[in-house]
Amino acid sequence: MRTLALAVLTIAAVLSGPAVAATRIIIAPYVGSVTNSNATYRIKDTSELDAIYAQWMNTEKFQINSFYYQIPGINYSRVADLQLSFDLYLKPSVAGKWVAGAGMEDQKTAMSAGRHIAPYTSFDMDKNVLFYYLRAGRYFYHKKGWLDASLFPYIGYAREKTTGEARINAAITKDVGARDSYPLGGININTTFAQFIVLQANWMGWLGSFKNVDRMDEYTLTTGIYFSRHWGLSYRYKYKKYGPSASSYNLGSIVYLF
Which range marks the domain in which residue 40 is found? Predict the structure, then answer.
């Protein structure tokens, strides 16, 4: 409920933002599916996913976005996830702009696997992962004819805090808490053709391997077709590898801009 309340408050703030020159607001309710596998527990499953994305931005000053999703049942688990990010744009010009930003992800998982995870006779777990980071980078612009493109490489530093416990065989309670910090990097590529076809490709990952999880890599591909200044369709594919867990998402949405 706390995560849901944060998502609602974030979207409300976006909708009520003050009118500023060259600003835009994007709202996109997504529906689709997610497939998750976990090598440690030797399980794999596919489930429905419902999400909402909201962004408020001024192309010369800032951007704020939120992405919230729920998974009602996957690998014997219920999942709720909230992602927020904020970027401040500095010294914008026709060639590009500098960026200083921050972001966070708050994910809650409630798992009740019963006898489905060998060799346990019962396995239940409640876990909360809080991930937050600072980043800095630069946008590089390229424009030719009907094509507008940008490249945004960045580096940053992240901290992660995991809390929760696992209840095994109805008698053993194990703390699953952990903390870690690490450098991260990423690159965003954005292209717009004739002002109504959009393609975005993003990667974010850890720059190295760390004590609690060997690797984290996240790849996102988003396409959009806009039929007017206010309406469009969007498809989003995302693949995330996080230690022994791998997830792939396929999402579609109607997009509203104003």
Answer: 2-257
Q: Is 67 left (phi over 0), alpha (psi -120 to 50) or beta?
A: beta
- The CATH number of whichever domain residue 205 belongs to comes to 2.40.128.130
Other beta carbons within 10 Å of 134: 14
Which residue reads 């010369």 in tokens?
60
Distance CA 166, CA 175 (A): 6
In three-state secondary structure terms, 2 is helix
Question: What count of Cα atoms within 13 Å lies in the side-chain half-sphere of residue 236?
Answer: 24
Q: Which residue, among 34, 213, 40, 35, has the nearest Cα to 113 in the 3D structure?
A: 40
Number of domains in the chain: 1
Q: Whole-number mean pLDDT of the chain? A: 89
> For residue 215, is pLDDT > 80?
no
**In the numeric block, which tokens belong to residue 81?**
């996830």
Specify the pTM: 0.86
Residue 132 to residue 152: CA distance in whole angstroms: 20
DSSP three-state, residue 87: strand
Cα–Cα dist 93/153, whole Å: 17
pLDDT value of residue 146? 92
Other beta carbons within 10 angstroms of residue 255's beta carbon come to: 20
Q: Who contacts 33 (Cβ-Cβ below 8 Å, separation ≥6)?
A: 46, 47, 48, 49, 249, 250
Q: What confidence tier does 211 reach under pLDDT thresholds 50, 70, 90?
A: low
Structure tokens at 182: 């690490």
Backbone angles phi, psi at 9, to 5 degrees: -65, -40
- 71 vs 48: CA distance, rounded Å: 6
